[in-house]
Amino acid sequence: MITMNKKLHELYNLGKDIRVSIVGAGKMGKGLIDQLFRIKGMTPALVVNRHIEKAKNALVAAGISKDDIVETNSVIDANFYLEKGKFIVSENIELATKVNLIDAVVDATGVPEVGANVALSAIDNGKHIIMLTVETDAVVGPILYKKAKEAGVVYTGTAGDEPGATMELYDFAVGLGFDVLVIGKGKNNPLNVYATPDMVYEEAIRKELKPNMLAEFVDGTNTMIELTSLANATGFVPDVRGCHGVESDLKNLTNVLSLKEEGGVLNSYKSVEFVKGIAPGVFAIITTQSEETHKQLQYLSMGPGPNYVLYRPYHLTCLETPLTIFEACFYKEATIAPVKGQVADTVAVAKKDLKAGDRLDYIGGYTVYGSIEKHDIARKENLLPIGLIDEKTVVKRDIKKGELITYDMVELNKDKTIYKLRNLQDETIG
Length: 430
Description:
By secondary structure, this protein is of the alpha/beta class. The chain is built from 16 helices and 17 strands. It starts with a helix and ends with a helix.
């Protein structure tokens, strides 16, 4: 952070900025726009949203004068007005990735297909891509990471989101020579895998969220997706399908998340987990082979051992994304990326009884929820990643409520970018 502050002030004093384009002006996008406008040396130069007024309102809410905002769908015009220090709003998603003066692109749509298209276009146009849409990363992150590396740009998840915040603890622990046993997050909402947008509608409106977004949180899909991204970045896997989802406070966490033979619930270490009772924080459970280090940790009030918990009691989501933008632009480093390949998947489970001919909907909808599983098991059982499902997915045979959905049970929309990327990933990476 000290380095970031220094470097950005140097840029600012030179009259320069890291120019960022943001796709999506919902809750996450709006928050990021506001934060970027308060950081010297960074600017939310271009905002794309399918409802252009929403993009414009996000800039105005951040304190940008309407006179400094230009509405255009032209790449040429966008380049021209950015040179003059104006801010651009557009409905044309291509502007986010094709405008010359943009240094980094942030996808904040939360829609797997849109995220895949934005990421692919950013990479093809030589732009660093920061994914707030973890729903995309969990399905096709490895192939996008590979393409970005080949293109010489950064593909990364974001600081502040729970996978990124947990990754910081993991890197901290590994960098200091500790053995990491378990990593994960607190679950913010009570778990109800059958939650629908209708069931959470009033709460969603109060929180300024789309009902399907809140339903994705409540039904656990978002947690599963975030843990999948964390697994693909570290090689850690779920101990059981869907994780244990234990309830615990910090004091007892190392006991609960220990091996069965040690009195805990785990079959093995090197696992990802979610915990009820420690939200909104993230954690890493560590140990060491050094007796001296054990003595030091006990002296430092880290507990009696042999396992200890590192805990971060907050994650600031989009408000921390500038940290990732800086690391990508200055040092070509990712906050979190699927460097281990696809080691886990968030697979689809039926929320209700489904009949042949029914159409599925989307993440956080009425028909499916997600559960994390090891990738090798998911492939062996032909389980369907939830991010490949959309409203054009047709059920080919009856599926019971609570039943895992396989590829052969549905007809997918094969024209989608995310479907094609996943096929390429399966063929080339595995």
